[in-house]
Design the sequence.
């Protein structure tokens, strides 16, 4: 015990290890410098500091930004964070004029401003990568091999031809059991919709971060005639905060970002899981590109879907960051508390994780080779037509619940005989019910999907309409500069 205590860090060493945030908040350097430049220029315009000193500050900050970009900036952990490191260096570069920069500003509103600027950029990047992933999904749904790799130009959103995967049939699953026939285009567009909602969530997260807290001071505002509106405009904020106490202690925008990231990771994980299953020999529906798989260390025949598995596996860490920050914030009184220093690592890592996973998912989908013949065979050799056969009996006047029982019995007989519905003869059907006529032999996987001709259904015509709508949405997103 004594030996352990003797080796434990104490005093300044412990403070350094426990309180220093420089090792992660230094990635806010661009935002911190941008905020400081806007603040210095405003102070000069308002006559709060001499214009000459403001010019020195702006020039010095520009030099510091260049040093950071070139890797010559000397970071000092004893200065705790990014803000003090930059301010200390500014003193070295321009002298006493650097002392005027922190006029009418606190580290509380400074760091809140920096983090909001960073979160806005990351939300925009997430949206852009979501759009690229959606593009890859649409190209698979369309069956236009090769287009997914080229983000522009988009094909005409009014096209209605050349969409083979609107008709490519595969089994649809519930409980991971084959249920009903669907088309590959319909299946891929289900993920398009998921990621479209994710883009909307990140858009809302970006809007939540688009509020400038600078000018709130430590918590009560500042006793100077500052111009918050001009700073907000210069930094690209659409509005300013309306309560100084809330402004310096609000981390809702981070929670919004983390929630958007967590839900997005759920969808990426689901996609990853299906790619893992579909690329297995048991399914054989897809071959993933070699650049997104890895070999086994001992089994030379294998290619493992590691990227898809990691898309699934990384989801937990994003969940953890959301729960972690919720837990940090749940008991904090107004206003700023040092607990909030724990917010940035969660935000940074969640953003890094979701962005790289989106990039990997887009690459996997764009390069995947789908075996539509095997998919069709899997649908044809199974019992996915059971509901259609029951609906056939309904068309002959049999109540659905009675038809359900008849087809349930028919399914058992077929399975016992080792036959799929497509292998049954008319006499096999009529042994289950005399309501079956010769036209039951026309019930196929193709007639099944064609019959689902309702808005949102898997009928090829409806899938083509959905593809046109998806292309329109991507056009709109492109025109809005989202990707």
Sequence:
């Amino acid at each position: 015990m004594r030996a352990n205590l003797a080796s434990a860090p104490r005093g300044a060493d412990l403070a350094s290890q426990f309180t220093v945030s420089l090792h992660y908040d230094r990635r806010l350097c661009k935002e911190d410098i941008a905020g400081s430049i806007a603040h210095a220029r405003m102070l000069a315009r308002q006559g709060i500091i001499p214009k000459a000193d403001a010019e020195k500050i702006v020039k010095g900050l520009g030099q510091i930004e260049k040093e950071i970009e070139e890797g010559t900036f000397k970071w000092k952990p004893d200065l705790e964070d990014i803000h003090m490191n930059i301010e200390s260096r500014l003193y070295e570069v321009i002298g006493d004029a650097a002392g005027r920069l922190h006029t009418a500003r606190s580290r509380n509103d400074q760091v809140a401003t920096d983090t909001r600027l960073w979160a806005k950029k990351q939300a925009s990047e997430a949206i852009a990568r979501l759009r690229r992933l959606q593009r890859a999904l649409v190209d698979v749904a369309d069956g236009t091999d090769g287009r997914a790799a080229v983000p522009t130009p988009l094909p005409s959103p009014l096209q209605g031809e050349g969409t083979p995967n609107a008709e490519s049939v595969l089994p649809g699953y519930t409980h991971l059991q084959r249920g009903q026939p669907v088309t590959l285009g319909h299946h891929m567009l289900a993920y398009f919709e998921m990621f479209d909602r994710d883009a909307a969530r990140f858009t809302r997260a970006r809007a939540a971060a688009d509020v400038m807290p600078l000018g709130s001071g430590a918590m009560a505002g500042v006793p100077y005639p500052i111009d918050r509106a001009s700073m907000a405009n210069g930094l690209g904020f659409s509005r300013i905060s309306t309560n100084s106490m809330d402004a310096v202690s609000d981390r809702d925008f981070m929670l919004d970002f983390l929630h958007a990231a967590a839900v997005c990771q759920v969808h990426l994980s689901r996609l990853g899981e299906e790619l893992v299953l579909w690329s297995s020999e048991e399914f054989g529906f897809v071959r993933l590109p070699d650049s997104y798989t890895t070999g086994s260390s001992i089994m030379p025949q294998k290619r493992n879907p590691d990227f898809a598995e990691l898309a699934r596996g990384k989801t937990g860490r994003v969940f953890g960051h959301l729960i972690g920050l919720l837990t940090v914030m749940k008991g904090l009184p107004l206003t700023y508390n040092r607990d909030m220093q724990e917010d940035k690592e969660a935000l940074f890592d969640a953003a890094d994780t979701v962005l790289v996973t989106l990039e990997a998912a887009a690459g996997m989908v764009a390069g995947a080779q789908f075996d539509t013949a095997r998919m069709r065979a899997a649908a044809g050799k199974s019992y996915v037509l059971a509901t259609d056969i029951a609906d056939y009996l309904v068309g002959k006047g049999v109540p659905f619940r009675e038809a359900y029982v008849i087809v349930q019995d028919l399914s058992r007989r077929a399975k016992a005989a080792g036959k799929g519905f497509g292998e049954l003869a008319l006499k096999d059907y009529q042994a289950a019910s005399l309501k079956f006529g010769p036209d039951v032999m026309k019930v196929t996987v193709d007639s099944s999907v064609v019959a689902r001709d309702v808005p949102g259904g898997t009928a090829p015509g409806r899938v083509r309409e959905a593809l046109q709508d998806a292309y329109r949405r991507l056009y709109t997103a492109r025109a809005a500069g989202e990707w």
